[in-house]
Design a protein that fits this description.
- The protein is an alpha+beta fold.
- It folds into two domains: 170 residues, no CATH class; 92 residues, no CATH class.
- The strands form three sheets. The protein has a five-stranded mixed β-barrel.
- A hairpin with an 8-residue loop joins strand 7 and strand 8.
- The chain starts with 10 loop residues before the first helix and ends in a 7-residue tail after the last helix.
């Protein structure tokens, strides 16, 4: 690539983003998301837009005008449903993602993500758009449905979200979350094996007047419960801690060599805080949220959850 075509981060945008991150909160006072109750067949109207990532997905609008994102055709939607439910139950920010048994999309081609992807590669988007028939529909079974646009995401030029290596910028002296809360989020990411943690998969959401204290949250939690996506054996057997003693956590053994997650020592306050949050979720609630994500065999998933909680809660205190 020629040097004059290399994109460099905008210094002013970076400074503004990190200033917002410094004031960020970690936990939300909002009530955890309840499982949405959809009709037997949920209908929507296809929204034609550019695609990104590698997971099959598309946007559409419900009859009431709400916009949703639908993931289909891979196990990632199961991980996202379970992870967002668990994040919400523990008090963290999370997307509103539910399961729909059958979704009827008017205007959708049979493979909407792949069709749009091919049209973009061949530069024939107008031809693709001109062939959308909103009188016809395609049915999708067992999909995830994410409600979009409930909160404003802060934008800083072309920079997206934040990386885990930047969480040390959160500063309690300017109203940001305390160190124990930041460590609880780091440890939660390790608990979930949230390995696809590039900045665009985390966000700063405006949740208060004037966006004085944006919410730092994991926004795309599909690549979880692994190290592969939704891998029971891998998730159950991956150690939470990097060593037998001490409280170092790492993601170096996960895909992308840990991504933006830098090795870090978790504070005792952070460990105890997350342990209390996870232990507060009842066994029936855990079973329900894992079942809603269609994780099977359910008894083994619940046992794996308990095992990882115990690794956090039933261990020696972290060194000061």
């Amino acid at each position: 690539m020629r040097a004059d075509r290399v994109s460099t981060p905008d210094a002013a945008a970076t400074q503004a983003r990190l200033a917002a991150l410094a004031r960020a909160s970690i936990f939300t006072p909002a009530t955890p998301h309840a499982t949405a109750s959809f009709p037997e067949v949920l209908s929507c109207r296809y929204v034609d837009k550019a695609v990104s990532g590698t997971t099959p997905k598309f946007d559409c609008t419900l009859d009431n005008g709400d916009r949703i994102r639908v993931k289909y055709g891979s196990v990632e939607w199961k991980g996202e449903v379970a992870a967002t439910r668990l994040l919400s139950a523990a008090g963290f920010g999370a997307d509103d993602v539910s399961t729909a048994q059958r979704l009827r999309c008017y205007g959708c081609p049979y493979w909407p993500y792949q069709s749009r992807q091919i049209s973009e590669r061949l530069h024939v988007e107008p031809f693709f758009e001109g062939r959308i028939d909103y009188d016809d529909y395609t049915d999708f079974t067992s999909v995830s449905v994410e409600r979009r646009g409930q909160h404003k995401e802060l934008e800083f030029g072309d920079q997206e979200g934040w990386g885990f290596h930047e969480l040390s910028a959160i500063d309690p002296s300017v109203g940001g979350a305390a160190r124990d809360e930041v460590d609880a989020l780091r440890l939660m990411a390790v608990f979930l094996n949230h390995w696809d943690n590039k900045p665009s998969n985390q966000s700063l959401l405006c949740v208060d007047a004037g966006c004085e204290h944006p919410l730092a949250m994991i926004q795309d939690a599909g690549s979880t419960f692994g190290p592969k996506k939704v891998d029971l054996d891998g998730w159950r057997d991956t150690p939470v801690w990097a060593e037998a003693t001490g409280c170092l956590v790492t993601m170096k053994h996960l895909p992308y060599d840990g991504g933006t997650f830098a090795d870090v020592e978790i504070s005792e306050g952070g460990r105890r805080l997350l342990a209390a949050k996870l232990q507060k979720i009842t066994r029936s609630e855990i079973r329900d949220l894992l079942s809603d994500a269609r994780l099977e065999p359910i008894d083994e998933w619940v046992a794996a959850f308990d095992r990882r909680v115990d690794a956090i809660a039933r261990r020696a205190p972290c060194p000061s």
